[in-house]
Input
Amino acid sequence: MKSVLLLSVNQEKIPYPVAPLGLLYIAHALRHNGFRVSILDLCFSKNISRDIKVSIKFFKPNFIGVSVRNIDNLSFPRSVSYLPAIKNVVNQVRLNTKVPIILGGSAFSLFPEDLLRLTKCLMGVVGEGEEAFVKLIGLISSNSNGFDTIPNLAWIKEGKFHQNDMKCSKVKDYVIERELINNKLYSEFGGMGNVQTKRGCKFGCTYCTYPLLEGNQYRLRKPEVIVKEMVALKTKYKINHIFFVDSVFNYPVDHAIAICEEILRKKIKVTWSCFAWPHRTSGKLLELMQKAGCTHIEFGSDAFSDKVLKMLHKPFTVQDIMLISERCRKVGIKFCHYVIFGAPGENKQTIEEAFKNLKKVKSTAIIAMVGIRIYPNTELQEISIRERIINSEDNLLKPRFYFSPKIPFKYLLNKVAEFTRNTPNCVAPGLDIRSSGRMFEIVRKHYPQGPLWGYLGG
Output
């Protein structure tokens, strides 16, 4: 029986560590196709070279998959690149084995050629990997050609980069096995478990990569399977708070309602939180969510000016944001708003408008970001080229951020820093205001469950 070792490179723990769901899905697919599988999750590793050496020595894999979740921490001005760590992991693997190395993960999917050349690997899977990964190692095992027949595959041959068309498969309704990772550590340091209720995103936000990674059509998991997974997390791993990692939980509305109803039908005593959009969420849906255990909602509002919202292609207004905030307060759900300052269309007037509206909204917390990380193949890249913020040939592997040319850069930074310092429930990761790793450690010791921003007050 062939064996596959899957490595998760991610070591980021701020604001909390995120369990490698993608690798768990790959592991499930491999197991059900007759492979032995082990996962080396480096998130909590204190000696990467030793852990890689030991895992390879004892598991003796025939193939190794390396999952790259992030290129950098997405925060400005304290931008941290993970490229040296990624390269080091691959180098450490090579020191201990000569078996084929296959790259994958969301970050690889955005920069496949760059990461293949950086790590000197020859192949990787772009987008969803359950089917492509299994087909690829089957092809390699049989010493066959035919890389061009595998959807989602990227590879380098004789120095030339090749990439096949992406394919989004049907969502398979099964509960993934989680015993391959240390769920206790994720619960202890992160305060929650993660569950995916769907794949894909139909919305077209200017900067977003979700449609590039998962497609622009929703593929929904069955509510009964989702709830079964929640039950497994609670009974097997004692995880009592779940975070739904979908880009938007509350759309399609019927699916969100069905999940809540299934939770209530099964009478699960688990609290949960989610990402959501500030529209198409009635008071009745929020009441149902709260009754089903929802305690926290993170809104990707992104702007508190209608002008900027329109430039970001958000299908809602500031009034919608105010309305959903009032509804959350009414039903007793804690909520935070993510806000990006410096987005397309931003100027001094929209900044002041945003500050004024943020004071009115009375959210539990505000997560303030300055600038937007520019990714390839997004509309933001096109805007950035048009406004001469970047050139068309610029390599975006190195973090580049968009800032509206209509507002002075130093003015923007100073105003956001001033607002954040004077707003007790506001966190600014890039400015290191109420967002240090040490602070999160201390708060987590006192509040073992749920998102940490829920304890800021407001």
In short: The chain has 17 helices and 18 strands. The first helix runs from residue 21 to 31. The chain has a mean pLDDT of 94. The chain has two domains: 3-163, 183-455.
